[in-house]
TrEMBL record:
It comes from Nelumbo nucifera. It comes from the Eukaryota. CDD domains: FHA_PP2C70-like (cd22678), PP2Cc (cd00143). Residues 296-568 form the PPM-type phosphatase domain. This is protein-serine/threonine phosphatase. Its EC number is 3.1.3.16. PROSITE patterns: FHA_DOMAIN (PS50006), PPM_1 (PS01032), PPM_2 (PS51746). It is an enzyme of class 3 (hydrolase). Keywords: Hydrolase, Magnesium, Manganese, Metal-binding, Protein phosphatase.
Length: 583
């Protein structure tokens, strides 16, 4: 009998617990709210504010918004009033930037607007996880790259009746740089006139043009193409798994679960493209200008990897050229900066150094002195000195090798080189090679002589100073304060006279190339390419640069490798940007 009573008590306790659990669930979920409230006219109070969430009169909503206090601004839009970029997944709560007000002082308050969008045809079940896109403020990393704001913070949807904003513009240059994520520092640039390389593809696997090694990036994630009708660059999501964002706004097919291509969205300079969640790509767009380059130029670079199939090394090289220099039509500059301790110093030097050279040559007296004496030593020395003074990199530095070229008539040129570090340049004239740089590694004999003359000679077998194998560089201010033997004083080469008939060429490269290929071997590769592609004048320089880069890759170089090939025997006339860079 006692056992029967015990079982009854246990059963009652179990039943009571189940009832309590059910009551708790009901109180927590409040299912009756779906039956006793109108989905079209729910009320929300914000302070003393009480108004319907949905209004059929969009104009009245806008007027109400303008009359609200800025610290209590609440905006509710009808779903049909949303722009085409709205995703079905964002039904629910979303956060976006405040709409511009007609009151110029109203922007000083809060800058967030709450969207509460209800769709009676699609109720979200209790316990269902909603994928939300919260767009408040761009992160600091993005804000420093975004150079312009879009109206109402919305993506510019490309409609069929859109017309180009700049009818006179017939092309542009697109530069992409990965600014965060595993492939940070990777760059890619392309001209809209180079249709053979369009569209630009972004993805995790080859043959993507911008190869982003990020597990959250799809194999074929997105593409960028040039719209010849609109004269604009456009971004398209290829149905990626983790989606694409443009300035923190989703770019995807209206049917977000279909994994189909999205509609094209216009790009502008300063935009930030987010692939997945961690890899962000900055966009730089510059117009093309009519420019006649009196010689062929090819640029190629690769960050390389320590082992075959391994992860790419961080890219710290920057190679660039400008022809002509701004305001100095007779002069052009070619340069390579190889960073150490990071890429910031090389990026800074590659921007500052050409500016300094152009500024010095813009002075008529100094320019005429160069042209009359056929010597730019003072210009190059002053430019390096001013660049070093402008850089404030305490723990990062870079090599710098620049080749200054100026025209003396349509068929004659002069060239002079300056460098610090171990990135090298040589010129071939009539089959004779001329080395234009000096190696500033501590193991080099000439550099050891200079160091010994400073009053603090090197010890036998000493190959490094403060852990560095270089004694000359830009940046590294901390090291230069600790040891006065470090310097930014450049080596200046002799001036060489180049005639177009001599079939001369110049080759600049970072140490990643010279670690595996000698100058003699590099010359042989150029002559081999000339024998095979002598008739292909337009793309010859580019083919040579990539051919030499492929050779360095096959020889398993283990350092960033950047190459600039200048072919003085050819002439190219095309619409191009006057300044190119690659890193």
């Amino acid at each position: 009998m006692a056992m029967v009573m015990a079982e009854s008590i246990v059963g009652l306790v179990v039943i009571l617990m189940l009832v309590l659990i059910i009551l708790f669930i009901l109180l927590a979920c409040r299912p009756w709210r779906f039956f006793f409230s109108s989905p079209q006219h729910r009320q929300i109070k914000v302070g003393d504010l009480e108004r319907p969430l949905i209004s059929d009169d969009i104009g009245s909503v806008q007027s109400q918004v303008n009359d609200l206090p800025t610290n209590q601004l609440l905006e509710v839009l009808h779903p049909q009033a949303e722009e085409n970029i709205s995703s079905p997944r964002t039904q629910g709560l979303a956060c976006k930037q405040k709409l511009p007000s007609t009151d110029e002082h109203s922007n000083q308050g809060a800058n967030l607007v709450l969207d509460v969008i209800s769709d009676p045809s699609e109720d979200v079940p209790v316990g269902h996880t909603i994928k939300r896109t919260l767009v408040a403020k761009c992160p600091v990393e993005e804000r420093k790259h975004v150079k312009r704001e879009r109206t109402n913070n919305q993506l510019p949807f490309i409609a069929e009746n859109d017309s180009p904003q700049e009818p006179g513009l017939t092309g542009s240059s697109l530069s992409l740089e990965v600014i965060s994520g595993p492939s940070c520092g990777l760059r890619c640039s392309l001209l809209s006139t180079n249709t053979a390389k369009l569209p630009v593809t972004l993805g995790r696997v080859s043959p993507s043009d911008l190869l982003v090694k990020d597990s959250e990036v799809s194999g074929k994630h997105a593409l960028i193409n040039w719209n010849t009708n609109k004269l604009k660059w456009e971004l398209v999501d290829m149905g990626s798994l983790n989606g694409t964002l443009l300035n923190s706004q989703a770019v995807q097919h209206p049917d977000s679960g279909s994994r189909h291509k999205s509609e094209p969205f216009e790009l502008a300079s300063g935009d930030i493209i987010t692939l997945g969640t961690t890899s962000k790509v900055s966009v730089e767009i510059s117009p093309l200008v009519e420019c006649q380059i009196p010689f062929g130029v090819g640029i190629a670079s690769d960050s390389m990897a320590l082992r075959r199939g391994g992860r790419k090394l961080p890219m710290e090289d920057v190679c660039y050229y400008q022809w002509p220099l701004p305001g100095v039509e007779q002069f052009g500059l070619f340069g390579i900066c190889d960073g150490h301790g990071g890429a910031e110093a090389s990026k800074a030097a590659s921007k500052i150094l050409p500016e300094m050279v152009a500024n010095i040559l813009s002075v008529s007296e100094k320019r005429q002195k160069v042209l009359s004496l056929c010597d730019a030593s003072d210009v190059l020395r002053d430019a390096f000195c001013q660049t070093e003074a402008s850089m404030n990199h305490q723990y990062e530095g870079c090599t710098a090798t620049v080749l200054l070229v100026w025209a003396h008539g349509p068929e004659d040129f002069f060239a002079q080189c300056a460098n610090v570090g171990d990135s090298a340049c040589f010129v071939s004239i009539g089959g004779k090679q001329i080395k234009m740089t000096e190696d500033h590694r501590i193991t080099n004999k000439s550099e050891r002589i200079r160091l010994n003359e400073t009053g603090e000679p090197l010890r036998d077998g000493e190959t490094r100073l403060c852990g560095m194998n270089l004694a000359r560089m830009l940046g590294d201010k901390f090291l230069k304060e600790q040891d006065l033997r470090f310097t930014s004083e450049p080596y200046i080469s002799q001036v060489v006279h180049i005639e177009k008939a001599s079939k001369a060429f110049a080759l600049l490269a970072s140490d990643g190339l010279w670690d595996v290929i000698s100058i003699k071997k590099a010359m042989q590769l150029v002559f081999q390419m000339r024998d095979n592609y002598s008739a292909d004048g337009d793309n010859f320089a580019e083919k040579v640069a990539n051919f030499i880069l492929d050779e360095a890759r096959s020889l398993r170089t283990k350092d960033n490798t950047s190459i600039i090939f200048v072919d003085f025997a050819t002439t190219s006339t095309s619409r191009t940007d006057s300044c190119k860079s690659c890193s």
